[in-house]
Design brief:
The protein is α+β, with helices and mostly antiparallel strands. Helices cover about 65% and strands about 10% of the residues. Helix 9 runs antiparallel to helix 11 (about 295-320).
């Protein structure tokens, strides 16, 4: 009991990265209570983020936006964004992108986005771009693997195609989750209004400019839709390749069966020939068997009969469409 109490009292901390509204970056170790107090989120939101089985989520809260998107686990307020698992190498480019986006805003922008949307845009950009890059790589590998399989059917090529199909299924599922979450947000004005954290601090109405967030989410919905279309193309190519392979295997199977029919017929006729000739060559004292001059004629007749029977059998098989 004492050991269990000591273990339960261990304070767990996570490596986190914090990016401020001014572009400043900070790396630190923080526990659950410290994160909840600093970012002003509920325990259930943090628990869902840390759970490996939690679904893709982009949710607006009273004082924060909670994001669980692909490899990105982030809490955004009006003043800073906190990223969990900051030691993950895949987050390095995201942090640099967000930092540059803050200190070097696009010159073409007519309306400067509030910090929470800049951070949200960086998360969407990282996740959608990663899925797009994975789909491009898979698209190239799939074409190569399918071409090799159609050229030569062997265990190695079949295993490569099997692995690609598994990756295709997993990647499609991930892309669907992101698309479904974006569609859910775009269909829920109340949730989008909840995500205007800067307006809440200023006590401003967010209903009039909700179109701003719709355009942001819509742009990435189009991007993830393009990724899904590319994955759908790969799936169609895989299905066409499977049909082609099945047709090839069926053709080979038919040829093997036809060969088996020919060989089986020849074997039956050959056994009959051997039996007849063998009867006339056995050592039995019968006058007919003693006339060795008849043996060549008997053998010749058996050969001719065998050839005739074989040709007749093949013609009959083709007439019955048993052979090509």
């Amino acid at each position: 009991m004492m050991m269990n109490r000591r273990r339960s009292g261990i304070k767990r901390e996570w490596a986190v990265a914090v990016v401020g509204a001014g572009g400043e970056m900070e790396s630190l170790e923080a526990g659950k209570q410290e994160i909840m107090r600093r970012m002003r989120v509920a325990a259930r939101d943090l628990r869902r983020m840390l759970s490996s089985s939690s679904r893709t989520t982009i949710a607006g809260r009273e004082c924060a936006i909670v994001i669980n998107l692909e490899h990105i686990k982030c809490i955004i307020t009006a003043n800073e964004a906190l990223f969990l698992n900051s030691r993950d190498p895949s987050l390095v480019s995201l942090l640099h992108h967000l930092h540059n986006r803050i200190i070097l805003p696009p010159s073409s922008s007519t309306n400067i986005l509030p910090f929470e949307f800049v951070a949200l845009e960086a998360c969407l950009h990282a996740s959608c771009t990663a899925l797009e890059n994975h789909s491009n790589i898979l698209h190239q590998e799939a074409h190569t693997a399918f071409y090799k399989l159609t050229s030569e059917i062997n265990i190695l090529n079949l295993e490569r195609v099997r692995q690609i199909k598994n990756r295709l299924l997993a990647l499609t599922c991930r892309a669907h989750k992101v698309r479904d979450e974006l569609e859910r947000l775009l269909d829920n004005d109340e949730n989008m209004i909840e995500m205007y954290l800067t307006n809440k601090l200023r006590s401003e109405d967010a209903v009039s400019n909700v179109e701003e967030l719709e355009m942001l989410l819509g742009a990435y919905l189009v991007q993830i839709g393009g990724t899904l279309n590319k994955l759908f193309t790969v799936r169609e190519y895989a299905e066409e390749t499977e049909e082609y392979i099945k047709a090839m295997l069926k053709e080979k199977q038919d040829k093997l069966l036809q060969m088996a029919v020919r060989v089986g017929t020849a074997n039956v006729i050959a056994e009959a020939f051997i039996t007849v000739v063998g009867i006339f060559t056995i050592n039995i004292h019968i006058d007919l068997f003693q006339k060795h001059a008849l043996l060549p004629w008997i053998a010749g007749g058996c050969v001719a009969s065998s050839i005739f029977l074989y040709v007749f059998a093949i013609v009959w098989y083709r007439h019955k469409h048993l052979l090509d």
